[in-house]
Amino acid sequence: MFDVSRGENDKVLLSGRLDASQVEKLKGVLDTVTRSCTLDFNELEYISSAGLGVLLATQKRLSDSGHRLKLVNLNKHIRNIFAVAGFDFIFEIE
Amino acid sequence: MEREFERKLDALDEIFVFIDDFISANDLKDDVAFSIRLAVEELFTNLVRHNYGGRDHISLELTRDSRQLIVKLSDFDVEPFDITKATPVDVRQSLMDRKIGGLGIHLVRSVVDKLTYEYSDRTLCVTAIKKVEEKDV
After folding, report:
1. Which residue of A46, A49, B19, B122 is 20 to 30 Å from A21, comparing CA positions?
2. Shortest Cα distance from B122 to chain A (angstroms)?
């Protein structure tokens, strides 16, 4: 089960398992983001290439207007996947 | 353990339950469990997206011996399509140069030790092998 919601200060909260069957939920929320924004991965257990694709597309769109995503609280597995994908160069990760 | 799943992304929920049963039955630790989940999802979604016209179901077999875990997906009555020959991804490209997609097999290769493809009698099999050590169980 995957869930995405808005928290305080417009932070986007992700939780559960973000697989290929769930990415439209994330896309639906991120498509409404027009300024720099923080995504909190604290409750996110899993991500695959489908989720990475949505994040990359959003980062590209935001960068056109000088904005960007910041990702926080990644677990060690997800952090490793980001490194393998080279996303640690593309995203600000805290 | 072997089971067939419908050729659709919505089958992933059932697939993850199946994987979790395998992980529990084999007392696998988090690191290995994450790797197996990722490998299965990426390979299954590749078959769903690329092999139109095959049978309604794709077979998933998970096995373990003393040294390795074996993930095998079989797709029946399909044209040959070697998903292991995906174009390499340059992960050092800048944001502007990065293309959306194409990361799946790259990620699989990072979490398993061997990835093979076979095609015979209109059946496609892709197998991922991950070595296991004492620390993994």
Report:
1. B122
2. 27
How does pLDDT run across A46-76, given as a tens digit for each residue?
A: 999 999 999 999 999 999 999 999 999 999 9
Domain ranges of chain A: 2-93
Measured between CA atoms, the residue of chain B closest to residue A2 is B13
Which domains, from first to last, does chain B contain? 2-136 (3.30.565.10)
Cβ contact B5:B60 at 8 Å: yes
Q: Which is more confident, A82 or A9?
A: A82
- Measured CA to CA, the distance from residue A50 to residue A18 in angstroms comes to 8
Contact B107 A17 (CB under 8 A): no
ipTM associated with this complex = 0.94
Nearest by Cα to B19 from A46, A93, A53, A92? A46
d(CA B43, CA B82): 11
Instruction: CATH number for A2-93: choose from 2.160.10.10, 3.30.310.50, 3.40.710.10, 3.30.750.24.
Output: 3.30.750.24
A86–B12 CB contact, under 8 Å: no
